[in-house]
Amino acid sequence: MTQQIQVNGQPESLATFTLEALLRTKGVTPGAKGVAVALNGQVVPAGRWPETHLSPGDELEIVRPFSGG
Amino acid sequence: MTDHFEIAGRRLNSRLFIGTAGYPNRQVMLDAITASGAEVVTVSIRRISLEGYAESMVDMLGSDYVLLPNTAGCSTAREAVLTAKLAREALQTNWIKLEVIGDRETLHPDVIELLRATEELVTDGFTVLPYCNDDPVSCRKLADAGAAAVMPLGSPIGSGMGIANPHAIELICARSPVPVILDAGIGTASDATLALELGCSAVLLNTAVAKARDPRRMAAAMRSAVEAGLAAREAGRIPKRTYAEPSSPQLGLIGT
C-alpha cells in the first residue's frame, strides 16, 4: 500500500521527504512571497521548510492571500 | 479637525478600508482602490491552486497598501486562529480582521467563538480587528479582551442595506474604548456618511464599490462620503426638534 499524505485536502502519495522538496513540486520555492504552510495544524515558517520531514498521514495546508472583503 | 486616527499605534489618514473581491477585473479593482483613497485593503487567505501558481496579491498591492488579511469562511475559533497564523506568516503582519461566522445564511458572527479567538490571538501578539454584532455588550467584551478596534456590522455582509440600527452603532461608538469601524452592509455613499456621523472612526466596505455599475466612481463617492460624515460630526449637528423653527427673521414682515 502506498503511503499517503493530504495536501490541501487532497490525498497524494508521499514521494518526497522534506517539505521544501514537496513545495517545489507545487511550484513554490523558498523565496516565494505570500505563501504560508501549516503541517498538522502548526505553521511552519519558510526558514524551516528544508529541515521539515514529512511522514505518512501528514496533513498540509498551503495558502496564499487571495481577493477578499 | 481630527483628520487621522490610530489603531495599535499606526496612524491612518483615510477613513475607508476597502476589500479586493468581486470587481469586474483587476484593473477596475486597482483603479477603484486608488480612487477610494484607502490605505488599508483587505484580503482573504485561501489554499493555493495545486495546478498552477497565480499572481499574488502581495505583488499587486503589497508595496502601496497595508494588507489586512481576514479569516472569512471560518466558523470556529480553532480555524480562525490557524488562518490568522498562516496570514501572519504569508504577509508578515500581525494585523488580522477576525471573522468567525456562526450562520452560513446570514453570515452573522458567532460571538462566543469570536471572543475565544480574540483572546487567543491577542495573547499571541496579534492586532485583532473583530467583525462583530452591532451589540454594545459584545463590542465591549471584545475590547476588554484586547481587540485593537471593533468592527460591528451595519447590516448583513453584501446586503447593501446600510446601517439597520443607527442607535446601536451610536451607542457602541459613544462607549467604545477602541476605534469603531463599521463593517458590512454599506450600500451607497450616504450609508458611509452616516457611519462617520454616528461616531465611527472608519468604514470597511467591498461589495458596494465592487458591484456598483461604475466601481471607480463609487469608490470616489465613498471617499467623499466618509470625509463629509467626519466633517459633519466635527462641526456638530443641530439638535432634532419636533416642531418647525423658522429660519428667517420674524420681525419686519409686511402687513404687520
Kindly summarize this structure in a few lines.
Chain A is mainly beta and 69 residues long.
Report on this model:
Chain A has a five-stranded mixed sheet, with no helix packed on it. Chain A is built from one helix and five strands, in the order ββαβββ. Helix content of chain A is 10%, strand content 33%. Chain A has a domain at 18-23 and 35-51 and 62-69. The mean pLDDT of chain A is 90. Chain A is mainly β and 69 residues long. By secondary structure, chain B is an alpha/beta fold. Chain B has one domain: Aldolase class I (TIM Barrel), CATH 3.20.20. Chain B has nine helices and ten strands. Chain B has helices at 26-36, 57-61, 77-91, 111-123, 136-144, 166-175, 189-197, 207-210, 215-235; strands spanning 5-7, 10-12, 16-19, 40-47, 66-69, 95-98, 127-132, 151-152, 181-183, 202-205. In chain B, the strands form three sheets. In chain B, strands 5-4-3-10-9 form a five-stranded parallel sheet. In chain B, strands 6-7-8 form a three-stranded parallel sheet. In chain B, a hairpin with a 2-residue loop joins β1 and β2 (10-12). Chain B starts with a strand and ends in a 21-residue tail after the last helix. The model of chain B has no long low-confidence stretch (mean pLDDT 94). The A-B interface holds A 7-10, 26-28, 33-38, 41, 43, 45-46, 61-69 and B 19-23, 29, 42-48, 50, 52-53, 56-59, 62, 67, 69-70, 72, 82, 85-91, 157, 204, 206-207.
Notable characteristics:
heterodimer; A: 69 residues; mainly beta; 5-stranded mixed sheet; 1 helix; 33% strand; globular; B: 256 residues; alpha/beta; TIM Barrel; 5-stranded parallel sheet; 3-stranded parallel sheet; 10 strands; 38% helix
